[in-house]
Design a protein that fits this description.
The complex is a heterodimer. By secondary structure, chain A is mainly alpha-helical. Helices cover 67% and strands 2% of the residues of chain A. In chain B, strands 1-2-3-4-5 form a 5-stranded antiparallel beta sheet, sandwiched between helices. Classes of the chains: A mainly alpha, B alpha+beta.
Chain lengths: 198, 229
């Protein structure tokens, strides 16, 4: 059981897809203009990741080696489309905020990467745990990034005003702010992980 | 269990199976969500109309979808004109959905007019403007805000940003968005006048406003007869 718990915690800091593996940079930088957007994008990716990991680990033995990429992509694309339809029907606000980035989860390299690197070699339970771990790690990273950008750029946190907008620096909401904030966050995470200077 | 070998039959069978299963799942989910999605869209439009008409009890009496070429553009643009009645069944005005190209892409607005052609309210239906700059248009022009357009008539000469000689304050650092927004409102108004009044609108002559650019003037002068679909 310890092994499975480790899979989950692994994704949070040690193998955090954003801060450590530096995967999936496009949605990371583009959707984190506010904390709530980052959180929704993270959870959406988390859902697809868990489902895709589960299915890939279940069908790993009936998939011939030469066609495994198209099979995985078909599986991932199905879950993404299902997610998009459900969001459109029941959570239109989130669908509006994330827009184009929901369909783009299909090509998010974290998902295909985990299918390739983990799910096709492990059993279903381990794959689910890995999906939860990596998914939550991604969600955590996007929420943190979104929260900081929103705080410095608009003076709010999750939409609540912390200080007047006039004192906020718009730069953080705009694309350069995403790179700057991400850089500082990666530095902070490296410090926490104790990466030695070489 | 041994992994399936890479024979042609195996590959064809697996890919076909995957395609059929995923196709089936998608068809099912699509069917299940079709109605809720249509409801959400309809509700969003109704809410939008109610908010731009500034009256929660209005009903849409008639919907006109039209395409016309307005002066100053060589492209046909699509407008949707909703004729609105109030709760007593009298005509309360119209709401027009109109699209222009702004700084970041298409900007679609829904504007409500009363029977005297004054603006009752507006709502941004679609925008790709920069967050924190042009995207502020959803609040900036509302009643009591800095660029208040509520109660104004888009046919007025002064219905322009102050930089172009008008009396409306543009969004700070987003003049392009502000111009596009006002143009969308104005074109919505022209489309409604052209579609609903057989003689065409009486458009005020704007040659007096020397500060505006020449192209702008032709844009805002007379109107061609609409090319109906």
């Amino acid at each position: 059981m310890n092994k499975y718990f480790e899979y989950i915690t692994n994704g949070l800091i040690k193998e955090n897809p954003t801060f450590v593996l530096l995967l999936g940079m496009c949605p990371t930088l583009a959707t984190t203009s506010s904390a709530i957007n980052g959180l929704s994008m993270g959870l959406a990716t988390c859902f697809v990741l868990i489902c895709a990991n589960l299915v890939v680990s279940l069908i790993k033995n009936i998939t011939p080696e030469k066609v495994h990429i198209p099979v995985y992509i078909a599986v991932i694309a199905t879950f993404v489309t299902v997610l998009q339809l459900i969001l459109k029907a029941y959570l239109p606000e989130i669908d509006k905020a994330l827009g184009l980035f929901i369909p783009l989860i299909v090509v998010n390299c974290i998902i295909l990467g985990r299918a390739e690197a983990f799910a096709c070699k492990n059993n279903a339970l381990a794959s689910i745990c890995d999906g939860i771990g990596i998914g939550l790690g991604f969600t955590f990273a996007l929420t943190a990034l979104g929260l900081l950008r929103e705080f410095f750029g608009a003076g709010t946190a999750f939409g609540l005003t912390i200080y007047p907008e006039n004192y906020a620096s718009l730069l953080f909401i705009l694309p350069p702010g995403a790179f700057i904030t991400l850089g500082f966050l990666i530095a902070a995470v490296n410090k926490v992980r104790g990466v030695s200077e070489q | 269990m041994q992994k399936l070998s890479d024979s042609l039959t195996n590959m064809a069978v697996v890919l076909t199976l995957i395609a059929v299963i995923t196709g089936g799942i998608l068809a099912y989910v699509n069917h299940m969500t079709e109605e809720p999605i249509a409801n959400v869209e309809k509700q969003a439009l109704e809410e939008g109309i109610k908010s731009v008409m500034n009256d929660p009890d209005v009903v849409v009496a008639q919907t006109i979808d039209t395409t016309m070429t307005l002066p100053g553009t060589d492209k046909e643009s699509a407008f949707t004109i909703y004729s609105i009645n109030n709760a007593e069944g009298e005509k309360a005005g119209v709401a027009v959905s109109s699209t222009t190209t702004a700084f970041g892409g298409d900007l679609q607005v829904l504007v409500g007019f009363d029977n005297e052609d004054n603006i009752l309210g507006y709502s941004i239906l679609k925008t790709t403007e920069t967050p924190g700059l042009g995207a502020k248009a959803d609040k900036w022009f509302q009643k009591g805000e800095k660029g208040d357009i509520i109660g104004k008539n888009p046919n007025d000469e002064a219905f322009k940003v102050s930089k172009d000689g008008g009396e409306i304050d543009a969004i700070t650092a987003s003049t392009i968005t502000s111009r596009a927004f006002l143009l969308a409102v104005k074109r919505g108004y022209l489309a409604y006048k052209t579609a609903c009044e057989p003689k065409g609108p009486v458009v005020s002559d704007t040659t007096g406003a020397t500060k505006s650019t020449p192209e702008k003037e032709t844009q805002e002068k007379d109107i061609k007869t609409p090319k109906s679909k």
